[in-house]
Amino acid sequence: MCGIVGYVGGKRAQPILLDSLKRLEYRGYDSAGIAVVGEGVQLFKAKGEIAVLEASMPEMEGTVGIAHTRWATQGKPTSENAHPFVGCNNKIAIVHNGIITNFMELRESLIADGHKFTSDTDTEVFAHLVEMNLDDGDLMDAVRSALKRIEGTYAFAVVADGGDEVVAARNESPLVVGLGNGENFVASDVTALLKHTNKVVYVLDGEMVRITRDAVTITDQEGNRVERKPERIAWSLEDAEKSGYPHFMLKEIFEQPKAIHESLLGRLESIGAEGSFFQDQSFSSVKIVACGTSYHAGLVGKYVIEELARVPTTVQISSEYRYSTAARENPLVLLITQSGETLDTIAAAREARKRGNRTVAIVNVVDSAISREVDHVIYTRAGPEISVAATKTFVTQLIALYLIAMELGIKGRSLTAQARKSVTGQLRNLPRAVQDVLNQAQTIEALANKYHKARDMFFMGRNIHYPISLEGALKTKEISYIHGEGYPAGELKHGPLALLSEDSPVVAIAAKDHTYEKMIGNISEVSARASPVIAIAVKGDTEIGKFADDVIYLKEIPPLFLPVPVITALQLWAYYLAKARGCPIDKPRNIAKTVTVE
Ligand code: M6R
Q1: What is the CATH number of the domain that holds 467?
Q2: What is the pTM assigned to this prediction?
Q3: How far is the CA of 173 from the centre of ligand 1 (A)?
Q4: In sequence order, what are the residues at sequence separation of 6 or more whose Cβ sits closer than 8 angstroms to the Cβ of residue 542?
């Protein structure tokens, strides 16, 4: 996954492109580059984060340009493989997010025709194709002809020497146009535009767009005009900035009470309304499909749906689901994805439809690709999440799942009016329960400082807290690089105990529910192997301190809702471990926020 941006206006393009690019850095940060149309096409690229590019680049004059931040897929992260690419004669420059699948054959035929390649990327063929076609004059036509030769996914932005326009095109990679005053933009994501405008037009698959200072023209690939009304984005610039926090991750964890509140706003009242999507469906079970953190939300959702609605629910990782055999069943398929761009999850949505199932997406990014692949969309309303580690979007995915469970419970008549009232009250209380954890950030930091030198760390939970232990482990390994494993607490004795020693702390989630006594037993097993135990328990638990070395106490709420404050504590735990270890928290090595490759 990569980020692209383009600008045409009356101001110097270079600082605008750089600023916008920084806001897309979560999409990739292996290398970056910029091309500005001035005296010729001025090009500069660098390996590393955008800060490296910024520190080393010369001043560029010109009011038209494109830029790119890369997460390497085809070709190593080097400055040669960084975008933009300029073909053989520097008359055009292109940036690309996506994968050109037929690039090998194109490359061979272009080389045979005398084209010189400077990189190992799939993208560079497109630069040569556009360059070849530009001999005919019009940049939009040249891009259109080049598109006809390629297969794969893309969002391209292209500029030409002497031109006062950016031409862009989209197929399965996001592309949005920002409408300014005497200036226009294209970008992979609205966060890149918020400083300049909140008026946008989304470009859809198979469409092209030409932006000049004063005009935006969208066409299909045959050149027919497409009319589309602009939309106003509700996100503000502040939402996409650190606002005084040292990292986006910490800011986003602290935004959770607000995000939960927004996610619930106006929704609890309308649950169960006659004729609404969920009340109108017929299905025998629920299947949840997602990747990574969203998959963990799905695992929590299984417990919630089975508890509140008694509907059998299975959960599958997207890349496994799409290649699985369709069983004889008619599930309602819930796809969970923060970005709405994860290729495996989009492919799973298509597969579910092919199997004749009704599909619902739980998504954060409004109008993202998956929203056009499903029958119904529920937005999580978490606001932009910039840190690669998902935090506030995870808790709002949980909120969406509680709401869906209520819908299904009402539909199947397993949720009584009284139970509905109680669930509603508990959901409304969650922002306070999360705030209580945030108020303990310093205590959690002190504990993380005590344990940050660990090489391995285990997380154990039972029942609904088993998936929370998986998510705690994922957060920890992803940003602190401590090897973390989540386990159902009853399972450690079936193998993993062999790995325990005084150097491998165990985080135990000890909810005061029907699993509590068993968890105390599991903590004792772990302590007997000399591993330090950090328990997450509820206030008023007077037992746990006798078994655990350290305890983080959370406000007591019913176990079904406890995952939300517990994961908040584990997110802070992972954050402070990473901070103590000096890790690049918002941009962990080797990964990108959205994975648009299989
Ligand atoms: O955008 P998605 O929710 O589909 O992304 C899926 C995973 O790549 C994502 O949840 C990933 O595991 C998190 N960024 C990890 O914190």
Answers
A1: 3.40.50.10490
A2: 0.83
A3: 17
A4: none
